[in-house]
Every structure is written in structure tokens, then in C-alpha cells.
Amino acid sequence: MSNTEYAEETFARSPQPTLGVEWEVALVDPSTRDLVPRASEIVDAVAQSAPEIHLEKEFLQNTVELVTGICHSVPEAIAELHTGIRAVQAAAEERGMRVWASGGHPFSDFRKNPVSEKQTYSEIINRTQYWGQQMLLWGTHVHVGISHEDRVWPIINALMTKYPHLLAISACSPGWDGIDTGYASNRTMLYQQLPTAGMPYQFENWQQWQDYMRDQSISGVINHTGSMHFDIRPASKWGTIEVRVSDAASNLRELSAVVALTHCLVVHYDRMIDAGEQLPTLQPWHVAENKWRAARYGMDALVIASRETDERWVEDELTDMVEQLTPLACELGCVRELELVLEIIERGAGYERQRTQFETSGDWKSVVDMTCDELDTLTPLGF
Q: Which NCBIfam families does this UniProt record tie to the protein (predicted)?
């Protein structure tokens, strides 16, 4: 197909609000605490010992991505990820490595972390150069099934009003190149430098999205990557909305809170459409400001909460959201996981724990150790 041709996407449509989760983790050396480019060994080893576990090789050779199947509840998805991460940890330990998860590594040198051998990855690096080479970043992607493409963009635009909330509870990338950046999520600021990444435009309907993607195809933009890597985007092949706002959680306990909040929000807005209610939106400049405030201040962010520019503390917003969404969470089978949002508020988000550890020890290596340990100490409910 030439650049002047474009086949419109067919949205697969999901009759139920099913759930899928992708979680990126990395391998580190237990002595140096630096990243190790041996993910392919782990993926191959687990494929032999437990072929039912779905792992993927990612952009960086140090990264393993855990992928759930189509799930119907948060506990189901988390149980699948729990089985997967234990298998990855066992394979890594056998080979003298530890498993680590976070939004960004606090001191590893991007020049020493090779990209996986895949043509599209090489094209990304060739095109983006310095910024693409710096992508030592890891995220959490949550897919929720949507029944019709006409619902996709109204729901995405509504979700963007909750961007700072999803980021604040997951932010865990304060360190970069050996320094404390002062940001809760440095990953967020770095990732948006890529030309196909960042906030989605507030398309009004599916046809506007198709017109946009046609333009991107004709102009050659997506020939390098195959898609747009927006913070929230349609995943037409699966019939889902894919929410990519959150840093990669360091543990399954907090990951389950992020997934529960995401699942509930998407279904909540979908139900509003059923009821004929107007979904919330914010001006694009308010959405952009909220994204920056959450990346910078995390749980201490003062966020813009209305089109009238009313402001509220994100912790207060999150507390109210948990209360509002609890009846729906009961229906979706994730009320206990949703309540873990309140536990994150009380304990402190990942970036807060990492920063405190660094300030106490003066050593980012101890932060890597602590973060690795959290895979075992902050366990999901029921395990």
C-alpha cells in the first residue's frame, strides 16, 4: 500500500467491558543494580517451562512485557500477572539477575542499553535520534472493551480529565541520570518528546480520528512506527480503549489499584452515554497543565477540576472518586482493589518512597534494591 492510500481501521467492538493489561518490567544486575540486556533469555525460558504465560520482548533488550489474556475482572487480570511475574523472577534468579519495575531507571546510561532487533524499533531510533535513544522508560497499559467506535472518543476525552489522577497514584520515576529530577514522573516528560507520543487530540468522533490517521499515513508519520503512541488511544484490533498514562508499577498491589480505577472510569463514562448524559471535558490547555502538574508534583498536585478552572488537590479528588465509583466497582468485582487507591494515598506513591530512600541513603543503588523488593513485599490481594 502506498503512502497515498489508507485503509480505514475497523474497530473490533467488544460486547462487554473486558479487560487486558500490559506491564513492562526490566532486568537488573544484583551487584551493579544496572540494567541487563538479557530479556530474550527470560522470555524463551518461560516459554519452555510455562507456555501458557504470555511474555513479549520489548523496545529495549532489558525489558520483558507481561500481557494478560482477555479478562473479565481486575482480580482475574492480577492473578494472571502474578503467575507471570513469579515465573519471570524465577528465571531471572536462575541466571543471576533480579526483576525490577518502575517508570524510569535512576542512573542507567541510555547509551549502554541496546534496542531489540526489530525493524520498526531501528526505524524509530533512526528517525528520533537523541530523544528516541533516551527511552529508558517503562509503563502500564490498560485495555478496556468498548461496544462501538462511536463511543471511543467521547470516553477518551472524558478520561483525559482524570489524567492527573491516574498518573499521580502510579508515578514512580523521580530519578534520572543519577539525579533527583524533582518530578514525580520523569517518564511522562521524556516520553512525550517522541513525535507520535503525548496527549491525544480531542477528536469529536470516529471519523475525525480516521481522517487524522489517513493524514498521518499519507505524510509518512506512522510508516516508521505503525501507529500513534498517544497516552490514551483506540486499539481497534482488540476493540478497546488503551490507557497508557501510568508509570510501570513496582508491584502488583499498586498495579491492581491503577487497573481498578481505570476499569471503573471507562465503564462509568460508557454508562453515562447509555443514560444520555453529557461526558466531562476540559479545555486542551487545562488538560496539558494537569498532565504537567501531575508529572511534577504527583500526589501533591493541585489540579484543574472543571471548565470553569476550579482547582482541587488531587488526593481529595481521588478520595471522592473512590467513594463515587465504589458501587460500580462492586458490580465489576474490584471494590477491594479500588480501595487500594486510598492505601497509596496513606503509604505514599512509588516516587515518594524512592525519593525518601535516596534522601536517606544518598545512593540510587539502594533505591533499586528497595524497588526490586517491593515485588515481594507489596503483594496483591489474595496472595
A: gshA_cyan_rel (TIGR02050), PRK13517.1-2 (NF010042), PRK13517.1-4 (NF010044)
Determine the pLDDT at residue 1: 42
> 112: pLDDT confidence band, cut at 50, 70 and 90?
confident
Between the alpha carbon of residue 125 and those of residues 11, 64, 135, 229, the distances in Å are 30, 19, 10, 15
Burial (Cβ within 10 Å: 0-12, 13-18, ≥19) of residue 383: exposed
pTM above 0.70, yes or no: yes
CA nearest neighbour of 257 among 336, 311, 178, 337: 337
How many Cα atoms occupy the beta-carbon half-sphere of 192 within 13 Å?
14
C-alpha–C-alpha distance, residues 234 and 240, integer Å? 6
DSSP letter string, 336-353? HHHHHHHHHHHH--HHHH
Euclidean distance between CA atoms 6 and 209, whole angstroms: 13
Residues 6+ apart with CB under 8 A from 5: 217
Q: What is the rounded CA–CA span in Å between residue 289 and residue 274? A: 30
CATH number 3.30.590.20 given to 19-373: yes
Residue 234 near residue 141 (C-beta atoms within 8 A): no
Count of other CB atoms within 10 angstroms of residue 274: 9
The predicted-structure confidence for 268-287, as pLDDT tens digits, reads as follows: 999 999 999 999 999 999 99
Q: Give how far Cα 133 sits from Cα of 39, 123, 194, Å.
A: 18, 11, 10
Whole-angstrom CA distances from 289 to 67, 155, 160, 240 are: 32, 20, 11, 27
Give the span between the Cα atoms of 298 and 352, in whole angstroms: 9
pLDDT tens-digit series, residues 165-200: 999 999 999 999 999 999 999 999 999 988 888 999
